[in-house]
Amino acid sequence: QLRAAGPFGPILFMLFMATAVVISPIPSLPLDLAAGATFGVTMGTVYAVIGAEIGAILSFLIGRSLGREALTRLLRIDISFCERCSDRHLALFVFLSRLLPIFSFDLVSYGAGLTNMTLRAFAVATLLGMIGPTFLLTYAGEQVRSGEWLLILLGLIMVAVLLLVPKLVLRYPTAHWVR
Q: What secondary structure letter does DSSP report for 174?
């Protein structure tokens, strides 16, 4: 239990979160919920964002140092995209991928390291893109702890919307929505 760790609890949590981002099969969504339940929505969001940012930057740097060939062998996926994109285009892609949980957080981080994107642009886009979704998830986690079932239900609905809307947007062409 992280609360029993005292002042080291937040540090341990951030290490867990960073590890979950670097090691692709470990899901980070339950950690966001746990952050809200353990530390509350404000500090839970802060700790989750810091841990995820550290993990994303480490993944980016690993991708950058290993190169495309080694990472393709390691992940068993051919990663080549946006080789001629500008820093601004890549930052926008990273920002949007952080807002929409349909993209693998880990693979985007590793993949961005394989592009010509600067570390600064990656770090800023990642940070800004993950604050909103992380806040919503830690809020849901805090409501679970509080035991207020109406708020828990609303939190779960927010999480469901966060997960379902991007899938609906991909499934149904948006051109039908804007007419």
A: G
Contact indicator for 160, 131 with CB cutoff of 8 Å: no
DSSP H helical ranges for the chain: 9-22, 29-39, 41-75, 87-99, 105-113, 119-146, 149-171
Q: What whole-number distance in Å separates Cα of residue 164 and Cα of residue 100? A: 10
Q: The whole model's pTM is what?
A: 0.75
Cα angle 96-77-100, degrees, rounded to a multiple of 5: 15
Can you read off the two tokens belonging to residue 112? 């961005």
Write the DSSP string, 18-66.
Answer: HHHHHSTTS-SHHHHHHHHHHH-HHHHHHHHHHHHHHHHHHHHHHHHHH
Reported as a single tens digit per residue, the pLDDT across 41-97 is: 999 999 999 999 999 999 999 988 887 677 667 667 666 656 677 888 888 889 988
- Contact (Cβ atoms closer than 8 angstroms) between residue 105 and residue 25: no
Yes or no: say if 134 and 45 are a contact pair by the CB < 8 Å rule. yes
